[in-house]
Write the structure tokens for this entry.
Amino acid sequence: MLKITKGLVFVAALLASFHVAAQGRIAVVNIETAILSTDSAQASLKALADKPDFKERKEKFEDLLKKYEEDAAAFQKDSAVLTDEQKANKIKSLKDQEDEIKLHQTKLQEAQQMEAQMILRNMSQATQEVLRDLITTESIGLLLPANAVMHADNSYNITAKLTDKLNQKLAEASAK
């Protein structure tokens, strides 16, 4: 009886795999990663990093971080000889520095996120066209967003293919 059950399960799995194969293959894609990995997107993000106001904010952030690390190390070293009032003042100063660092970090992240959102918006039409072509050429019957899948072997992931096709499409468009 156990052999028959195992045999039936095997046959059912085999038939199910034939059915899936007949419908097309399954694939996953991370559209955001594909778009942001394109040469065009990378150039835009690099251009953002080269903008004077972004550079200035990043340098300020790095300077604040360096000063904070120096002050925290000095506090650790000197804390045994400081009075309670001095310790409280140093702790408050370090907390204020942390807040300023977080503010600058948030501003940098917001600028990067805004640039990424603009890139995603600008490339959405081209991405949809390329994705439709990939679905057809790859005979994909089911396409899932990569972030919605618990596990997928790399052979199912078409993100890199999407990036390559987008790079080709954008290169052709700029050549015209």
